Amino acid sequence: MNLTQKLIESHLVKGELTAGTPIVISIDQTLTQDSTGTMAYLQLEALGADKVKTKRSVAYIDHNMLQSGFENADDHAYIQSVALKHGVFVSKPGNGICHQVHLERFGAPGQTLVGSDSHTPTGGGIGMFALGAGGLDVALAMAKGTLNLTMPKVVEIRLTGKLRANATAKDVILEVLRRLTVKGGVGKVMEYTGDGVKTLSVPERATITNMGAELGATTSVFPSDERTEQFLKAQGRAEVFVPLSADADAKYDESITVDLSSIVPLAAAPHMPDNIAEIKELVGKKIDQVCIGSCTDSSLLTMLKVAAALKGKKVHPDVSLTVSPGSRQVLTMMSELGALKDILDSGARVLECACGPCIGMGQSPKTDAVSLRTFNRNFYARSGTASANVYLVSPLTAAYSAVAGVFTVPPDDGLDGITLPEIYDVNDNLILDPADFKDVTVVRGPNIKPFPVGEKPDGEIRKTVTVKTGDNITTDDIMPSNAKLLPFRSNVPYLSNFCLSTVDAEFAERTRRAGGGIIIGGENYGQGSSREHAALAPLSLGIRAVIAKSFARMHRDNLINSGIFPFTFKTPDGYDKIDAGDELEFDPIAAVENGGCAVKNITRGCDIQVTLELNDRQKKILLSGGTINALKDGVID
User: Fold this and answer.
1) Measured in whole angstroms, how far is the alpha carbon of residue 454 from the centre of its chain?
2) Which 3 state secondary structure label does DSSP give 83?
3) What backbone phi and psi angles, to 5 degrees, belong to 451?
4) How many percent of the chain have pLDDT more than 90?
5) What is the pLDDT of residues 386-417, one digit of tens each?
6) Is the bond leading into 271 cis (omega within 30 degrees of zero)?
7) How far apart are CA 265 and CA 275, in angstroms?
8) Contact indicator for 114, 30 with CB cutoff of 8 Å
């Protein structure tokens, strides 16, 4: 078997290892963050769970860190109290970004992890089966210790050779994105094999698995080997190490080979992670801002390389350079090793150990700026400045370009003295152990509102198309995430006012006036983050269905959980037969029972054939008006 099959088989509760079929697996660990966490814990409470059923669940506070009003602080207080009450560890503000901290302090090879964040696959860097999901699926994993999913195909990415001195793990995943695109991984796991694997450290592997999310992949995974053991020993957690790898004769659904020695410095140009260009093609282009950090590239290894590249140099006067360490441990080690001084002396601004600019939480660039970022997403307006052009680059490209003031290819002669310490400075005093807290009272601020629940279908649904979108609409488009809106992640009624605002500023108001509606989408609708707010906000507005050419996995699951019908056009011309403003009608019960139906376009006087591929559990969920209703009715467990 391949490693993915081994990991799933060892946790298989129901089903079989046949790609495309429904399975249930046991979940060892969960994680939440504060952007999606309030909703996940509201749902956990609604499920009536007393204590979590996992081996380890952790609540991180790392996203909504700008406390310009009471809302974020109230959410933090709610998350801390409700998590401790239910037996969940809490990583407090300032302790670091969830994926970086989890890799350091909690991740374990061979275990399963599900998180309410799309970049949870970072854990695959140490041999975990780690995947992102909507908050309700994570709440169910905490309450029941299991997760329902579709058995994925497994793609082998065979690594050969060794990276050149000016190429990094970020360039590797950008190369994979160039080949496979942002929808190339849907329904698949990316499994890394080959002799090139052993040349990559755990932080480098984690960068690759982290950005595997941009492929639309279920997850990505590396073997657990001597490099993994070395990393865990440095963290004082050698006892969780187990060796894991695919069998020598393992079979895969697809296989590609990446020669590491051929990798060159790359960039994802605006406004999509698969819009790849070589840095040499961009050399000399003026830049305005550089941001280094995020869960993709904020490890100690990254920071040591950045410090070495900046040592003795000055940031260009026209450039603003920010550096966000991934965890307090990373920041502490930077200080002890002298890297922090080198970075500060260059003129860089060191930010809090948090997500920060990656999610538009501060550091929005100036009008028409060119911003180089070591992050994982460069979606339109995600930075907070709609006119900005954001490029995703490696930390080395970012550092050298910040000094030059223009796109610069890092030198190929290497950096001297970059070695990771054998022992890290471990201090977990910002992690709260629920065993230390008794009789916890849950704290609820006035901004925390009940989440919307779907409507059980009863008879034909007749609604107006209130928006028609193009391809690759992201969850950032559907439910924007920025410093102004993140404080309201626990207030879906307010958030819904901004639903799809980057696509159509009038969408929310138009949908309300119409008494609900239907959304028409293109290819890969809902790509990006796991945020179920991209389903809950449309639900709050009365959206009953989304008809698209294709869907991203997590968003489709979230639509089903919310009781919104995710139809797919049966033929490509179906998309052209519907316009915004058309009145449509469909029979929801027949659609569920028959795997699709004919949607009547009453305005145009024609029918459009759509498909609705569902397993038995998903059928029961949609016929109940969503997962919460289905659980309440006892039709699913």
Assistant:
1) 25
2) helix
3) -85, 150
4) 93
5) 999 999 999 999 999 999 999 999 999 878 77
6) yes
7) 14
8) yes
SS3 per residue for 213-229: HHHCECEEECCECHHHH
Amino acid at 66: L
Q: Which residues contact 204 (CB under 8 A, 6 or more apart)?
A: 168, 169, 301
For the residues of 106-121, what is the DSSP string, one character each? T--TT-EEEESSTTGG
Question: Considering only CA atoms, which of 289, 282, 272, 589 is closest in space to residue 461?
Answer: 589
Q: Are 391 and 378 in contact (CB under 8 A)?
A: yes
Q: Which of 238, 236, 172 is nearest to 199 (CA)?
A: 172
Q: How many CB atoms lie within 10 A of CB 257?
A: 13
**CB-CB neighbours of 542 under 10 Å:** 17
For residue 537, how many other CB atoms are within 10 A of its CB?
A: 26
> What backbone torsions phi and psi does residue 310 show, to the nearest 5 degrees?
-90, -15
Work out whether strand 289-292 and strand 320-323 pair parallel, antiparallel, or are unpaired: parallel
Over residues 436-460, the pLDDT tens digits come to 999 999 999 999 998 999 999 999 9
Position 352 scores a pLDDT of 95
pTM above 0.90, yes or no: yes
Helical H runs in 69-195? 70-85, 98-105, 135-144, 169-180
**Rounded Cα distance, 615 and 404, in Å:** 55
Q: Token pair 């994802």 is at which residue?
A: 268
